[in-house]
């Protein structure tokens, strides 16, 4: 049997010694952020972790091999090559064909879980698309998080999606959702979506205790930590609402469907906002990476007890 994935030396060493590790996804780099800012961002996210003693594990499929932890060349490849967007179901196909792919939240969480990386930072999760009652377009991010025992830090889901519907599906899938110091679920660029969730958590240590209890119960789901951007950093709500409607109308007019929808909307919105949405997007990701690093630290400390 070929090895199903490769763990970098740095990540393997950290895991073996119980040091904190945070997984990072690659679709946000290759399909969610424009070049050349995407490469700067990929390096910056890793550096934020390294600066606080946390080992970054950026995940992608390179030449058919899923990799947990990339070297500098691997990071440059996910930013600069035109890689396919890879969800969980694409992994065996990429593997057999020996081709590369940037992993979505679904595929990243799956691979992180297999490798024993317990905390994962992203920007926003995929979810239930508007009109999903007719198209069935619901991101595999949701069903994957019901299987991967990984804690994902995300600023909720974008308002391009059906936020209430996404929260309903997460309830059905029994995925715990906790707000970080809030019960108002964030809508990515905006601090609050107006949708309420049941629980908030106050500290990384509390999240680590939730993880430990989840493990003890043995149910195996991931945990979503909804981490809102502070309101002084959010996108201006009026501009957000205007650009969002424009983007949805344009996707509809151009007949964009399936896995192309999310990348299309993201890049359209960057252009239509004159880059403003991109700056907020980067702040969101940094904010999530920092919190994920703290959670990974708390998790290591708890495991040592
Ligand atoms: N949401 C964001 N930014 C992103 C994505 C989602 O705010 O970059 C990416 C993630 O990689 C996520 C994927 O896993 O899009 C979801 O795509 P789909 O809706 O096709 O499942
Ligand atoms: Mn989809």
From TrEMBL:
It is an enzyme of class 4 (lyase). InterPro entries: Indigdn_synthA-like, PsuG. GO terms for molecular function: hydrolase activity, acting on glycosyl bonds; metal ion binding; pseudouridylate synthase activity. The keyword rRNA processing does not apply. GO terms for cellular component: cytoplasm. Its cofactor is Mn(2+). Its EC number is 4.2.1.70. Mn(2+) binds at residue 137. It catalyses: D-ribose 5-phosphate + uracil = psi-UMP + H2O. GO terms for biological process: nucleobase catabolic process. Substrate binds at residues 85, 105, 139-141. Gene3D superfamilies: Indigoidine synthase domain (3.40.1790.10). Keywords: Glycosidase, Hydrolase, Lyase, Manganese, Metal-binding. Catalyzes the reversible cleavage of pseudouridine 5'-phosphate (PsiMP) to ribose 5-phosphate and uracil. Functions biologically in the cleavage direction, as part of a pseudouridine degradation pathway. Homotrimer. This is Pseudouridine-5'-phosphate glycosidase. The lineage of its organism: Bacteria, Bacillati, Actinomycetota, Actinomycetes, Micrococcales.
